[in-house]
Amino acid sequence: MSLIKVLIVFLAIIFLITRRLNLGLIMLTGAFLLALLFSVWPWQWIQIAFYSAIDYTTITLILSLVLIQFLEATLRRSSLLEQMVTSLKNLAPDHRLVMAFLPAFLGFLPSAGGALFSAPLVEEASKGFDISPAKKTYINYWFRHIWECIFPLYPGLILASSLLGVNLSALISHQWHYTLAAILVGTAFAFPGVKNQNQRMKDKGIWKDLGKLLFTILPVLMVLVLVLILHVELVLALLLVLALLWGWAAAYRHWKFINFWDLVKRAFSFNTVFLVLGVIIFKDTMIKSGSVNELSDFFFRSGVPSIVLVSLLPFFVGLLTGVTQAFVGVAFPLLLGIFGNPVSLPLVALAYVSGFVGVLASPVHLCLVLTRQYFKADWGKVYAMLAPSASIVLIVAFLVYLVF
């Protein structure tokens, strides 16, 4: 019965999406319907929504995304974004690599909704190519997430290592295959029919382009260094870098107050804020209504074989929440008995990749929602590439487990 309730909610969300309604409103509607189906009274759901909205994590996430929009607008208006992509194109042997490299590079920054950071770079890098909004969405979204199974600073990996009591490096060593598979699959789906437009570069331009690249990419590098190495909060890192960048723009580009005010007005998007709130409230409603736990109990009671349970449970939790930490935090404790003692790392890897594929395919995954909104892509055309790509990675996970 719990599975039917959840399917009703997701079918309702998909139907409303096809009606092209405001996505933030759709997610709130889906959360309210979910609450009703799982016997949460309206006033209780309002309480859940209120506390989700004022939660520190929610506020910092919204602030981060707003600051990322300001940073992107500053880089674009000061022409640094264009110079960055131009210098990369001059240096790269294949211009298509630039489109994949940019989101992959920023994928080292494990922030929720971080695909919004790389989307403008992909848009700039795709100029001159005949690429649809759906394919741009796919490139930005897919390549941003290729490190999720192996990069040790991703919260999901850290949480899994802690819950299972296994060494993080040992866990990663059983999952590198999937990152390789993701890179190959992404390349196969993203670039067929997209011709390389690179022209032979004169040797004397290499150092000039390297210098331009270093200077223009410096704001992004500073954010990465502050967050990943110095462990500064993302909001603070963005504020610091933005302050330095605005100081540079005022001093060397002679920007006045009116220029900054105009940038802020144009870059700020209330729709983005509302969308984030809708997704967060939906996720919290999923967890606090008990629907995730009921779904887990359903799978356990159904007598499903262990290998299927280890893959299905993380997959469905990932699909329903769109959050890696959610499938790890909810599904892994329930699977401890199946993982064994000592823990079977190949089985854990299968569970982790299954959950990760569910997160990738989730229509409520914030990165997917924001990227699709940025490029104004059609959901159906995005999923025409995303669904088979995710399926292939999942098949690879099963083959690796069964063969090795």
What's the SSE blueprint?
Elements: H1 2-18, H2 23-37, H3 42-53, H4 56-77, H5 80-91, H6 95-106, H7 115-125, H8 133-144, H9 155-164, H10 168-173, H11 176-190, H12 206-229, H13 234-252, H14 257-267, H15 270-288, H16 291-301, H17 306-321, H18 324-339, H19 345-361, H20 366-375, H21 379-403
Helix pairs in contact: 1-2, 2-15, 3-15, 4-13, 4-14, 4-15, 5-7, 5-12, 6-7, 6-8, 7-8, 7-20, 8-11, 8-20, 8-21, 9-18, 11-21, 12-13, 16-17, 17-18, 17-19, 18-19, 19-21
Task: Give a written overview of the molecule.
The chain has 21 helices and no strands. Helix 6 crosses helix 8, helix 9 packs parallel to helix 18 and helix 17 packs parallel to helix 19. The radius of gyration is 22 Å and the shape is globular. It starts with a helix and ends with a helix.
SS content category: mainly alpha
Quaternary organisation: single chain
User: What's the number of domains?
Assistant: 1
Low-confidence stretches: none
Query: What general outline do the C-alpha atoms trace?
Result: globular
What value does the Rg take, in angstroms?
Answer: 22 Å
Order of helices and strands: HHHHHHHHHHHHHHHHHHHHH
Let me know the average pLDDT.
Answer: 85
Largest sheet: none
Question: How helical, in percent, are the residues?
Answer: over 70%
Q: Provide a count of the helices.
A: 21
Number of strands: 0
- Give the CA-CA distance, first to last residue: 37 Å
Gist?
By secondary structure, the chain is an all-alpha fold. Helices cover 77% and strands 0% of the residues.
